[in-house]
Amino acid sequence: MSYSHLLVAVAVSPESHQLLHKAVALARPSQARISLITLTTDPEIYNHFAAPMLENLREVIYEETQMFLAELIRQTDYPIAHTFMPSGELSTQVLHLCKTHQIDLVVCGNHNHSVMSRALCSAKTLVGTSQVDVLLVSLNAE
Predict the structure, then answer these.
(1) Closest of 105, 131, 119, 129 to residue 9, by C-alpha
(2) What are the residues facing 100 on neighbouring strands?
(3) pLDDT tens digits along 74-99
(4) What are phi and psi of 84, to 5 degrees?
């Protein structure tokens, strides 16, 4: 089965290179498009009492995420169609993007080993709510 548009859920972490490499290997034979999604963290979640500093923190987080994505794309030998940096719940954002951008495969990583982290894993929710195929890639240390 070949796919035409893959959405790769990356995080600002070294494992994202491994995940994108896997997606490129899947996309290349059929020249499928690849788009990236990463959630930006809303600093208000962390501290409601630092209101004057939140706007600066929000900008810093956004800029760091943009720089990470730019470097990730630069190191990839495959064109990236779109990058998305929403905030909120991953499964909700992915569901919306799949509908609006004709995405037919979502690729995400999993490196949860403990029972608690498996129970809270966002990939579990994503698999349960997705209306397209989801590839869950193990990101164990190599």
Answers:
(1) 105
(2) none
(3) 999 999 999 999 988 888 899 999 99
(4) -125, 135
